[in-house]
Amino acid sequence: MDIWNKFVGWAADQGLSLANVVLRVIIILALGILVMHVINRIVSRALKRSRLEKAAHSLVKTLTRTVMSVLLALMVASAMGIDVTGIVALASVLTLAVSLALQNMLGNVIGGFTLIYTHPFRSGDFVEIAGQSGTISEIGMAYTKLITADNKIISIPNNAVVSAEIVNYSATGTRRVEIKVSASYDADAKQVVALLLQAADIPGVLEDPAPFAALSNYGDSSIEYTLRVWTATEDYWTVYFRILADIKPLFDRAGVEMTYPHLNVHLDK
C-alpha cells in the first residue's frame, strides 16, 4: 500500500491522472513488446546469414531477450515515477552478490562465449567431451548438449567443456577405420593380408589414402593383423560394420582359421 500511495502521490504532483499514467505504461509495454518481437526476428535472420554456429544461436537469442526485457522493465518503472537510478544501483549490488553466490553458473555462461569465440566444434560434429561422445546439438547459456548414438541427450556444463579435452571426429571430414583380427600361425601371412584388403574393397572406403593391412603382432596363440581404411565421417560406422561382417566369410572360404586363446599341452611318455 505504501508503494501504491507513493505512486498515486507522484502522479498527482505531475498533474497526471491515474488513467493517464496507466495508459502511458500500457503504451510503453505494447511498443516495447512489438520492438522486442521485431528485434528478435532481425537477430534470428542475422544469425541464419552469419557464420556463427547454429549450436550457439540459442545462447545469443537468450541474451538478447534478457537485455531487452531488462531495458523494458526500466522504461516502465520510469514511466511510473520510480527512481530508476536507485534501481540500477540496487541491481548492481544484487548482481555482485548473486555473482559471488553463482560463480559456477557465471563460469558456464563465460564458457559459452569462449566456445563461440574459439569454435572447437560445429553444430552436427561428432565429438568426445569429458568421456561423453555424441553429436553437438546446442550451446546454451549454461550447458552444451550432445545427442548420443542411441538418441540420448547429454548436457555438459560449458565450464567443464572449456576445461576438458575435446576430441572432434568431424573436423577434417574423414575418419580412419582400424580393425584388428587374429589368425592362426598356420595361415599364410600374405594371404591373410590380401583377404583383409579384399574385405576393404567396398563402397565408402576412400582410395586416397589407400587401404592398408599388415601383420602387427605375434600373440601367444595367434598372429594379429591390422586393417586401416579411410572413409567420410558420416560413413564411418557403415564401413566399420560392413568390413567386420565380410572378413569372417572370406577367411572361412580361404580356410584361414580365426583363432582364440588356447593352450597346447604336450605329454611325454
Describe this structure in words.
The strands form 2 sheets. The chain has a 5-stranded antiparallel β-sheet with strand order 4-3-2-1-5. Strands 6-8-7 form a 3-stranded antiparallel β-sheet, covered by helices on one side. It is elongated and about 115 Å long. α2 packs antiparallel against α3 and α7 crosses α8. With 269 residues, the chain is of the alpha+beta class. It starts with a helix and ends in a 15-residue tail after the last helix. β2 and β3 form a beta hairpin. The mean pLDDT is 79. 51% of the residues lie in helices and 19% in strands. It has 3 domains: 100 residues, no CATH class; 58 residues, SH3 type barrels (Roll); 81 residues, Alpha-Beta Plaits. The protein is built from 8 helices and 8 strands. The longest helix is centred in the first third of the chain and has 32 residues.
